[in-house]
UniProtKB/TrEMBL annotation:
<dbReference type="InterPro" id="IPR051082">
    <property type="entry name" value="Pentapeptide-BTB/POZ_domain"/>
</dbReference>
<keyword id="KW-0175">Coiled coil</keyword>
<feature type="coiled-coil region">
    <location>
        <begin position="39"/>
        <end position="69"/>
    </location>
</feature>
<dbReference type="InterPro" id="IPR001646">
    <property type="entry name" value="5peptide_repeat"/>
</dbReference>
<protein>
    <recommendedName>
        <fullName>Pentapeptide repeat protein</fullName>
    </recommendedName>
</protein>
<dbReference type="Pfam" id="PF00805">
    <property type="entry name" value="Pentapeptide"/>
</dbReference>
Amino acid sequence: MQNADLEDANLQGANLSQANLQQADLEKANLQGANLQRANLINANLEKANLQSANLQQANMQRADLEDTNLTGANISGANLQGADFEDTIMPDGTVRRR
């Protein structure tokens, strides 16, 4: 699913563990409660996506665009977030990250 166009997709609760979503367009996608453990999300566009309560443990999210994304209650432990854009992102603890 590398480079996949999944804009506005409803993937609520989907099991995407270890999926290769490198450079995928997931803008405005509903990934609430999805399992993305160890997924490859390098350079993925997750702008305005709903990742509420998603499992992102050990996901590789280098340089991912997470602008305006909802991560409330998401598990991001061990995730590689190097270079990710968190502008106006709602973090797992409910705080909003500003640039």
